[in-house]
Batch of 2 targets.
Target 1
Amino acid sequence: MLSAAASYNAVPPVYAPPQAGEPAAASAASSSSSAPQSAAQAKLEALKARLSAARQSNHKEAVEEDRRNKLGPEALKRERAEKAWEKKKGEAAAETETDKLLGMTAADAAASHDKRDKKQRRGKEVGDDG
């Protein structure tokens, strides 16, 4: 009987590197990532890509719907309120930072910059990694 690791490795990967006796060109031609050779093949590949994208989107929506059904209406209301509060908090923080920078004079900025440089130099003299 095969062990779990041996049975898992018994299945070849989707893309297998060329074997010792097999030329590299032959394995590249057999892979599915090669360019389509005709208009029909190109159209088929485009349709497959659209189908795959639709399948992924549908799966995400199904997972989200399942999550909403399990949470219930009260939890969803609370979640919406938390999102709105976070958004409002983020907007307020961005405005205050902008206001702070706009309200600073050139003299204040120069003093702040000199103070920061002085702290950095003092830290290097002491041997601090700051």
Note: Helices lie at 4-9, 24-30, 39-71, 73-103, 106-126.
Target 2
Amino acid sequence: TLSHVLRARLNFMREKYSIRDNDFLTFDAVRQAAQCMGRVIRSKTDYGVVVLADSRYNRQDKRSKLPPWIVQFIRESSLNLSTDVAVDQIRAFLKVAGQPIDQQALQAILFDQQQVGELAKQFAHHAAAAPVLPA
């Protein structure tokens, strides 16, 4: 059953924007799932495992609604797995990901504060020089 708050949201979205209930519910569910996945990874050196146990994520039309930063890591070979196979894949991943981080290699690919500042200046310069398109 739907809560009164959710019913009010559905009515508002339907009346104001002509969004169907099912479309809004799908969007809301995918948004919440993406938020949960984002809590697993917080920095460049974090790693984690997220299990999408809902079979609807086997469908491309549902997966495609996830943000690109998530979709890029979903492999067709990792869909619709048995529990045993999923646990084996997770175990193999964690063995690799759990190794100590090579700090020199990490520093070679991460920007320091000065580099970020320089990139911000370059971006601001390019944005200022870009032509303004008519609305």
Note: The mean pLDDT is 88.
